[in-house]
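Quick review question:
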């Protein structure tokens, strides 16, 4: 270790080092104190240790070091040294929740310091003003400090001041000013060795990207900052707060809540900053509210309110009070007092210049509407509606929701529909900036209320065609365009390969009865990295994508029918499209239908095994009840032609072929009418070839594959060691027909990691998304390959929905466990029909009718469905 006691200059180098390499600075400071230093040197060493403990350790220890540093500086009779320590102590006291003492320490520091030192004290007081939410005072102190720091050519502190000013601008919604300051600060950081400050600059750019509406860039920059902090060995509480905000905007509230709670637990364990804990509690409460957990949101926000009040942080306290009110409303509470409280919060937030003020006005308007106070509601909603014309997408969405509610209260159906259209256009522009299908799907949740309001207005007065248009407006939007991805991402490919290898090793260990916790931990780590890489990908461009052309849909249907199930206020409405028109039929309650579908799924699981024949009549009876609930009077109006069913996400697991009116029909399922139309108009590849894949571990060994190889002759057959993921993907790319006989695994916790088991490990949804063009037709002959997760407003994530935007026009898959032996004759009959020129839905109908009449084979036939239009 170099001699840091040789002179004042070398010891003073420890202060910048604590933000360049915190661990090294701590070690050197401890070395100084062991060498019987002078009061000045000891003061510096204690200050360094105090900063380290303040930011990365126990705040109580930090305060002991900093008070010792202050006393030693006074003994040395160095006014500037004392002023510098007083500023550091002031920051620590404020973070400990002792705001009055902290501000008093700054007053003494400003009075004691002069020139350059005083400017540094002013910068740190500006930081404290920002922590306290007093943004005008923060900007004033930065204004006073910056010229002096620049004149002294102090690049490090000038960059810090610019970064702080940019952060304050962001809190006030001035994104362009913030970006300019961040850019200027980063140019200065490039000339220094301040690695911790550089990491902070990357984190700040992530926040700026988020405020500019670029969520993928924000996630990428925050992940990069976390990697830099990890290299330095420093905690990342502030980064966790910022990432929570971004994750919530991306529709990933449960992840945000988990991150905030984990950071709170760590902070409590080490006795860290009280101010950071309060901010993390606020982030957790917001995430819990967004995740639909109102009681957790109330509990977290109430504690945050108490902490912020004790810390004298009114800006933060008011934001926490807003979350308390929002969560109470979500829990079903309404009162006149709550209207007044929300209005007071809105007024206070507006006085702070907070971008959250419209949210509070919207809340006051909602409560007033629920109480029938129309005049009060109009006043508050009018204030909230002003935000619809500017600011980030979330603020504009808030404004358009307020405008739609105003129009509904005024009885203007046209006004409701216009506000909903404009608001969903904002969401569409935002959604298309996201490259990952996962983020696009989750982001739609922000438009659920607007879409519901529009459907409600259309049902009341607009007619079935308009209701169809609005039902499509927010359904399966993630399928309207393929997920964006870089043409070549070696890091993502490496991660996918490593994850596959670990998953294969874990599976082998389980089969041998060996423990797998370490392998499972590594698999989860790799999955997190893959998820992060895909979320960093930006969308190609903003835009609303395709809109359903109802006339074109009706033309393409020919003599067939399309049955779209719209849900308005918990009731199912059947929109029957065909013969040049759209008709509406009322049906049952969605909740009853979902419960009945679960009973059917349980019955099909039992029928997959011999000996459960007695359950067959019960399953058939449940099918009749489902028909009453889901089709109503439309069941008698389906005509003789093919039928396409478009269910809402909550009903994606219904075995539609079980319903009596659909059992003998050419039947296909689609996530949306627009998706079916795109599939119908997708041309097959000119030289599409058949590909047959047989994965390991099947009970029948994929017995249908040899027979299919004989049928197709020229088909590429991949089995044994040849059925490894890279080779399988290469052959699938652009194929005309693919048959995959492989074990399927559905991941409800992370649907894009749902997989088919290949010789070298799982073939996951993320792998399919790397295809230039997925096969025109795909047949998945194993269990549960059609299972999907409902996310966002009405989006579905899983294997089938990943394929449809990538060039696949038709898929056959199972939504339930099936009997492997009974699958073989079904698949052979299905391919016989395809070879005769039938489409998937026609071939599947004929294959079902050719099966033996026993319960196992009947259940197997019902479990499979044709998706799309090929």
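Suggested answer, residue by residue:
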């Amino acid at each position: 270790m170099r001699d840091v006691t040789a002179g004042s200059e070398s010891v003073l180098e420890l202060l910048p080092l604590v933000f360049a390499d915190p661990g090294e600075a701590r070690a050197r400071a401890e070395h100084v104190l062991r060498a019987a230093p002078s009061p000045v040197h000891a003061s510096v060493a204690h200050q360094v240790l105090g900063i380290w403990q303040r930011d990365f350790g126990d705040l109580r220890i930090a305060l002991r070091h900093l008070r010792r540093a202050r006393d030693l500086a006074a003994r040395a009779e160095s006014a500037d040294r004392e002023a510098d320590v007083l500023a550091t102590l002031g920051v620590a006291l404020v973070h400990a929740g002792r705001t009055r003492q902290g501000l008093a320490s700054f007053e003494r520091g400003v009075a004691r310091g002069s020139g350059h030192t005083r400017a540094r004290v002013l910068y740190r007081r500006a930081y404290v003003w920002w922590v306290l939410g007093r943004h005008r005072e923060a900007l004033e102190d930065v204004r006073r400090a910056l010229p002096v720091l620049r004149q002294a050519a102090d690049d490090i502190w000038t960059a810090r001041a610019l970064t702080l000013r940019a952060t304050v601008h962001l809190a006030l919604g001035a994104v362009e000013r913030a970006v300019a300051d961040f850019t200027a600060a980063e140019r200065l950081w490039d000339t220094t060795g301040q690695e911790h400050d550089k990491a902070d600059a990357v984190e700040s750019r992530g926040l700026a990207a988020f405020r500019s509406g670029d969520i993928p860039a924000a996630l990428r920059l925050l992940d990069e900052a976390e990697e830099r902090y990890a290299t330095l060995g420093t905690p990342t509480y502030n980064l966790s707060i910022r990432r929570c905000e971004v994750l919530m905007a991306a529709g990933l509230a449960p992840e945000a809540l988990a991150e905030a709670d984990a950071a709170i637990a760590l902070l409590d364990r080490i006795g860290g900053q009280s101010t950071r804990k309060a901010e993390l509690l606020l982030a957790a409460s917001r995430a819990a509210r967004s995740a639909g957990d109102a009681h957790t949101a109330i509990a977290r926000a109430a504690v945050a309110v108490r902490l912020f009040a004790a810390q004298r942080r009114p800006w933060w306290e008011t934001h926490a009070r807003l979350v308390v009110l929002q969560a109470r409303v979500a829990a079903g509470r309404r009162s006149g007092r709550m209207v007044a409280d929300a209005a007071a919060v809105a007024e206070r937030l507006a006085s702070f210049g907070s971008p959250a003020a419209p949210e509070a006005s919207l809340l006051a308007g909602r409560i007033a509407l629920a109480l029938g106070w129309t005049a009060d509601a109009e006043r508050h909603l009018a204030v909230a509606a002003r935000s619809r014309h500017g600011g980030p997408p979330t603020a504009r969405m808030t404004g358009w929701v307020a405008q739609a509610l105003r129009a509904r209260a005024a009885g203007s159906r046209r006004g409701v529909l216009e506000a909903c259209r404009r608001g969903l256009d904002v969401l569409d522009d935002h959604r298309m900036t996201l490259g990952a299908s996962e983020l696009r799907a989750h982001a739609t949740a922000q438009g659920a209320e607007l879409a519901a309001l529009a459907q409600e207005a259309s049902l009341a007065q607009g007619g079935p065609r308009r209701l169809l248009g609005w039902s499509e407006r927010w359904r399966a939007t993630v399928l309207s365009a393929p997920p964006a991805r870089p043409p070549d991402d070696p890091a993502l490919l490496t991660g996918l390969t490593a994850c596959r290898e670990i998953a294969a090793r874990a599976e082998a260990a389980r089969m041998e009865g060996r423990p797998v916790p370490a392998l499972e931990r590594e698999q989860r780590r790799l999955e997190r990295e893959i998820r992060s890489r895909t979320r960093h990908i930006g969308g190609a461009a903003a835009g609303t994508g395709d809109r359903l052309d109802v006339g074109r849909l009706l033309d393409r249907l020919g003599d067939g029918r399309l049955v779209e199930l719209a849900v308005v206020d918990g009731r199912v409405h059947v929109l029957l499209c065909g013969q040049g028109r759209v008709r509406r039929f009322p049906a049952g309650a969605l909740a009853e239908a979902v419960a009945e579908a679960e009973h059917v799924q349980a019955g099909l699981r039992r029928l997959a095994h011999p000996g459960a024949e007695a359950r067959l009549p019960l399953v058939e009876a449940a099918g009749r009840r489902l028909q009453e609930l889901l089709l109503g009077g439309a069941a008698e109006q389906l005509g003789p032609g093919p039928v396409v069913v478009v269910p809402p996400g909550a009903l994606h697991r219904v075995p539609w072929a079980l319903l009596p009116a659909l059992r003998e029909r050419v039947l296909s399922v689609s996530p949306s009418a627009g998706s079916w139309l795109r599939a119908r108009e997708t041309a097959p590849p000119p030289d599409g070839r058949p590909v047959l894949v047989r994965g390991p571990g099947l009970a029948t060994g994929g017995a249908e594959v040899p027979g299919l190889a004989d049928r197709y002759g020229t088909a590429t057959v991949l089995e044994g060691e040849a059925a490894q993921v890279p080779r399988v993907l290469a052959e699938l790319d652009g194929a005309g027909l693919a048959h995959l006989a492989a074990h399927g695994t559905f991941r409800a916790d992370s649907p894009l990691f749902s997989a088919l088991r290949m010789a070298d490990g799982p073939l996951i949804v993320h792998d399919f998304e790397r295809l230039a063009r997925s096969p025109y037709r795909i047949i998945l002959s194993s269990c549960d390959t059609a299972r999907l997760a409902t996310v966002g407003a009405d989006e579905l994530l899983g294997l089938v929905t990943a394929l449809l935007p990538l060039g696949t026009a038709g898929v056959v898959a199972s939504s339930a466990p099936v009997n492997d032996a009974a699958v073989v004759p079904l698949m052979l009959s299905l391919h016989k029909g395809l070879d005769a020129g039938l489409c998937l839905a026609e071939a599947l109908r004929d294959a079902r009718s050719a099966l033996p009449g026993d319960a196992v084979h009947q259940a197997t036939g019902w479990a499979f469905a044709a998706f799309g239009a090929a």
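Why it works: Confidence is low (pLDDT under 50) at residues 1-7. The radius of gyration is 31 Å.
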